[in-house]
Amino acid sequence: xxxxxxxxxxxxxxxxxxxxxxxxxxxxxxxxxxxxxxxxxxxxxxxxxxxxxxxxxxxxxxxxxxxxxxxxxxxxxxxxxxxxxxxxxxxxxxxxxxxxxxxxxxxxxxxxxxxxxxxxxxxxxxxxxxxxxxxxxxxxxxxxxxxxxxxxxxxxxxxxxxxxxxxxxxxxxxxxxxxxxx
Amino acid sequence: xxxxxxxxxxxxxxxxxxxxxxxxxxxxxxxxxxxxxxxxxxxxxxxxxxxxxxxxxxxxxxxxxxxxxxxxxxxxxxxxxxxxxxxxxxxxxxxxxxxxxxxxxxxxxxxxxxxxxxxxxxxxxxxxxxxxxxxxxxxxxxxxxxxxxxxxxxxxxxxxxxxxxxxxxxxxxxxxxxxxxx
Lengths: 182, 182
Hints:
2 copies of one chain form a homodimer. Chain A is 40% helix and 19% strand. Chain A has 182 residues and is α/β, with parallel strands linked by helices. Chain A has one domain (3-181): Flavodoxin domain (Rossmann fold). In chain A, the strands form 2 sheets. In chain A, strands 1, 2, 3, 4, 5 and 6 form a 6-stranded parallel β-sheet that branches. In chain A, strands 7-8 form a two-stranded antiparallel ribbon. The first copy, chain A, is globular and about 45 Å long. The two termini of chain A are 13 Å apart. The mean pLDDT of chain A is 96.
């Protein structure tokens, strides 16, 4: 059955390792998965005083219609980038009610360091749990020393990570499939 | 001795409880403390590809010349607001070297909930430790049920919190004083 997956790419860098990781992961999803990329960089800082701009309406529409959210996070100063936190805060404030509650999600991350976004993933998983998402927690995907392993346009020279990512894609696909079948 | 303290106010709301908390706290600092407010809302999302805008230069100058940073954080979805994380990420990337390393800092927070920014303070304290700030950790200031206690323009109807805040201001003042005396 067709599934819509929405990718959140936490780095705005053109040569981002997390964008490259998305390129790899998107090729691993089953054929009836349709990918979209969440448009998060044009969202202003969340401010309850502000009338939601058109970018927020568009973004809410994207999140609502997704069957699953897939987060690719770098690690900035031991936590997630602001652009990612801001997107989650906007998503949770959808005036139609938070579309995050009960929606499946997974987290992946790549960094140049030896710990591969360990700290930022801990924060992100806490935040996603708080907003009520159904996290598919296993396997964990933490790509360390990304500059040695990830090539632009979807090549990952790390057989263990490749295997884990395939399993994660399958696990998410099955979780969403069970929800859609109900 | 004159000290320059730089306030980071994590909520952009006009009627923000954390801005009201700043109004209260700023009145508690010793007379030779000069307050400034960090200009963080005009900073774009941090992006290493981007040439730093004038707002970043101005902000770096503010952080460099501060003797201490004072963070007022709300709690959004169990963590800190994006505008605060973004400011910390910009600050740490000052091309002259991070001005955060070794600089004293304190954290305060107010929220309408019963736990008074407990979760966001945990994340914020981890991030500030990561960037090498010298956190004055005690006493903790978590103002719960802020809508019942905080009035605009600097009135806090919570004698315990008032006492803790006075102690925190004094502890920060002494910590900075010792550093400036060396």
